[in-house]
Design goal:
heterodimer, A: two-stranded antiparallel sheet, globular, B: 153 residues, 8 helices, 35% helix
């Protein structure tokens, strides 16, 4: 296919021309090598297990904890949500993506019981010792999606509409029916309560988004083990087809108050997984997020932080994988979660390189970065397929449009303002020496 | 003359579209006086979508409705009317990108119009070869960043 395109278009003169040609041939930003494939699939598996907790707990927080002013136990997932059937796994699935089962993953349940300590202790002890799934990471992603506006989709304007506020009013009044103090505060500061509702809505959005990604990653891991995903483009094509298949999944938010459901964002609004969850998620979490607090500091006066939020570039694609111990990018707390569920082939691989087990957390974080470049490539290719033209289109004008789209996407990693080009890891991941 | 729905039903090439319009309960709307301009995807256009895409949409009618209404514009627009109109606002609310030039270019987003200007009582049908999907607001920025100039219509 590369040959066909090259006959129709002259070679790209982009500084990442090799990557442009690879994308035009149906590949990813990540080079297609067995070592890359092993790393990204292994990380999908390690990510999917905690993600199976994240989406369940996010829905629990959005639907049940809701506006609890002291949500001390929001990470203590009740059995009902561990047994909640994933809509995209198991026998009763709406569309079966993972051939496995619909309830919480067995490795997750095992870890929740004994933790890293390997001891069956009371839940509260594991929680306080931080020997648990780090929901702080999931909430950080949610906050990035809430905080960054202007990412497209119809949900964002809807959350500012009168209709949404009226839905919130009903839910707030029912939720605090027996709490006159909170009702009084709500009368005085209604906007503060609406903002909390918006946060709960975004929590639901991220939960519904990850409900799909967990089975997608489990299935990819199984297909790799069976030898049915044998290259990076195979992995990416699976993701692209998955993105299309579930693009129309409804995005909504409902709250259960004393057994009664209240819709804040009804399914009937027609909001979809692709437009109202996936695209905003990729933009907020992979590209933007926010400068993390920790051992590394940023100086806004020295223009190390952009004036315009649209120019934020602190996401996983730009992250320096220094383990600062935070939930934000580089999310050490996520790396810690994934560390517990690495497949054996990756543990063996990391032990062979650098300082072996001692810096496994950094090595897996860099593999994770590679795997997210692959997911971003899939989103780029899905966008190309949805909005532009087939890679083998016979019309050169169409191929030119595809090329402009690919180059436009890559140009995001080449901008010199705020040192974005130096922060971007696109050049690093072209080589196996980056680990 | 027949209305838009009757023409689509009478022609054997729009079975998926007709099924989807019925599922979304849009038959009476599209049979109303309008007028509308409909970009009607052929069955072969729906068949190009990856497996599962239609299944998910048919399970979720409001979401299906949104995709279908993206193919409909209020008003009666023949190709000749669109030569100087690079954008049309769909009933879904997002823009459709038109590239119409004489003698033989007529495209909407990434679809090619294979049969233009079918007249109905309540509007115009243009038959297209690809299902079109709403382009997010960042799409123009990315294309321009890649040096692309959109057709002036």
């Amino acid at each position: 296919m590369t040959a066909t395109i090259e006959r129709k278009l002259p070679p790209s003169r982009h500084e990442f021309a090799e990557v442009v040609h690879r994308l035009e041939a149906g590949g990813a930003m990540l080079p297609d090598t067995p070592e890359n494939l092993m790393q990204i699939i292994g990380l999908y598996k390690a990510y999917a297990v905690p993600m199976d907790f994240y989406w369940r707990d996010l829905l629990y927080i959005a639907e049940r904890v809701f506006l609890d002013p002291l949500p001390a136990f929001k990470y203590f997932l009740p059995k009902e949500y561990l047994e909640l059937e994933n809509h995209y796994a198991g026998d009763n699935a709406d569309l079966r993506i993972w051939r496995g089962y619909a309830t919480a993953h067995k490795e997750l349940l095992e870890f929740m019981e004994k933790g890293e300590l390997g001891l069956k202790l009371p839940k509260l002890f594991h929680h306080l010792w931080h020997d648990r799934i780090n929901m702080e990471f999931a909430e950080e992603c949610m906050r990035a999606m809430l905080w960054h506006r202007n990412m497209g989709g119809l949900l964002e304007p809807y959350m500012d509409s009168q209709e949404y506020k009226q839905n919130c009013d009903r839910a707030i009044q029912a939720y605090f029916k027996y709490n006159p103090i909170m009702l009084g505060l709500y009368k005085l500061f209604p906007e503060m309560f609406y903002e909390q509702c918006r946060q709960a809505t975004m929590t639901s959005v991220l939960g519904l988004f990850w409900e799909i990604m967990a089975p997608v990653f489990f299935e990819m891991s199984d297909l790799y083990d069976e030898g049915k995903i044998a290259s990076v483009p195979d992995a990416m094509n699976f993701l692209v087809n998955g993105i299309f298949a579930i693009a129309g999944r409804p995005i909504y938010h409902r709250v259960n108050i004393r057994g009664e459901w209240f819709d804040l964002v009804p399914k009937s609004k027609g909001f979809t997984w692709l437009y109202e969850a996936a695209f905003p998620y990729v933009e907020a979490v992979f590209y933007r997020t926010s400068p993390f607090r920790g051992t590394k500091s940023y100086n806004a006066q020295a223009k190390q932080v952009p004036d315009d939020q649209n120019d934020f570039h602190f996401g996983v694609l730009y992250a320096d994988k220094f383990p600062v111990g935070s939930a934000g990018i580089p999310p050490t707390l996520l790396h810690q979660d994934m560390f517990h569920f690495l497949p054996p082939y990756l543990v063996a691989y990391y032990q062979k390189h650098c300082r072996g087990k001692d810096d496994m957390l950094i090595q897996l974080a860099i593999s994770f970065q590679r795997s997210m470049y692959c997911v971003t490539s899939a989103v780029i290719q899905a966008g190309r397929a949805a909005f532009l033209y087939p890679l083998d289109d016979p019309n050169p004008e169409h191929l030119k449009a595809n090329r402009a789209y690919f180059e436009g996407q890559l140009n995001r990693f080449c901008r010199r303002e705020y040192g974005m080009n130096e922060a971007a890891r696109l050049r690093f991941i072209q080589s196996q020496n980056y680990r | 003359m027949a209305n838009i729905v009757e023409i689509a039903v009478g022609n054997g090439s729009f079975e998926t579209l007709v099924t989807a319009v019925k599922a979304a309960d849009l038959v009476s709307a599209l049979a109303s006086p309008g007028p509308f301009t409909v970009f009607a995807p052929l069955d072969s256009a729906f068949a190009k979508l990856p497996a599962g895409t239609i299944t998910t949409l048919v399970q979720n009618i409001p979401q299906l409705t949104r995709i279908l209404t993206y193919h409909v514009v209020s008003g009666r627009y023949k190709k000749a009317d669109l030569l100087t109109k690079p954008r049309l606002t769909s009933l879904e609310g997002s823009d459709l990108y038109i590239n119409a030039r004489e003698p033989d270019i007529f495209e909407v987003n990434n679809a090619t119009v294979v049969i233009p200007d079918i007249e109905a009582d309540n509007g115009i049908i243009h038959v297209i070869d690809t299902v079109v999907l709403m382009r997010p607001h960042w799409f123009d920025g990315i294309m321009e960043f890649g040096g692309y100039k959109f057709s002036g219509g």
